[in-house]
Description:
The structure is a single chain. With 275 residues, the protein is of the alpha/beta class. 43% of the residues lie in helices and 14% in strands. It has helices at residues 2-28, 45-57, 71-75, 77-85, 120-138, 198-211, 232-244, 254-271; strands at residues 34-41, 63-66, 89-92, 145-146, 153-154, 157-158, 170-171, 191-192, 214-219, 221-222, 229-230, 249-251. Helix 6 (198-211) links the parallel strand 8 and strand 9 (214-219). Helix 6 (198-211) runs parallel beside helix 7. Mean pLDDT is 91; it is low at 1-25.
Amino acid sequence: xxxxxxxxxxxxLLFGVSSVSHAQVPTTxxxxxxxxxxxxxxxxxxxxDNVVPALDSLKLRGTFYLIGSSxxxxxRLPEWRRAAQRGHELGNHALMHPCDGSLPGRSFVTSDxxxxxxxxxxxxxxxxxxxxxLNAIDGKTARTFAYPCGDLQIGxxxxxxxxxxxxxxxxxxxxxxxxxxxxxxxxxxAYSINGQSAEYMLDLVKKAQxxxxxxxxxxxxxxxxxxxxxxxxxxxxxxxxxxAHEKDIWVAPMVEVAQKIKAAQLGASxxxxxx
Length: 275
């Protein structure tokens, strides 16, 4: 009798936990196995020449992190507006793309765009100015931010702390697959792609499917246009796989995925019993 009760209790716990985990994770990912976010940095010509047409042809949507001062933004503003109208997110990648020039390997940083020489107030002001510009392009107020060069601090101070109410979330540059509860919305992990094969990217997607996690790709050049580049054919293979498995993979702009994660994290925190 005692053994029967123990078995019944064990089975209830086993199946109960299993059903909760399998119910909660897919719900966060729009009732699918995982979420994949395609992000493209720096507002370069290939975004509009190669990427947007490729995404549109498969009815997939991505996030384009625009540098406010980029001449490609000014010169091709109507095209960015049309991209936003088709569901792509125009994210904020700061006004001047400032990076910390005091760090190793930063010889490309100029004195005008050296984050280590910024004040926090200047960084915050420039990022908010870029939000104003983006709002004038797409008419939207909800969007995400991407740290230029992945730099989080100025003089030891995290400047994004003053911007949390301006954005839904911020994307970083650290590799990682994460469950909804593991995601830090102030610094979302992303896999930077520079020369990796289609097989490498597809393997990441399959791992995300198996682990029910968030996978964020960080691209610069696609078929050229930037020193950090992915082959056009490899990028196309990734998109085709995502489209072929869209019943299992939620592909959406960062802002939509982040909003879902934010709601899930808020729900989890409010449901915890008080001590």
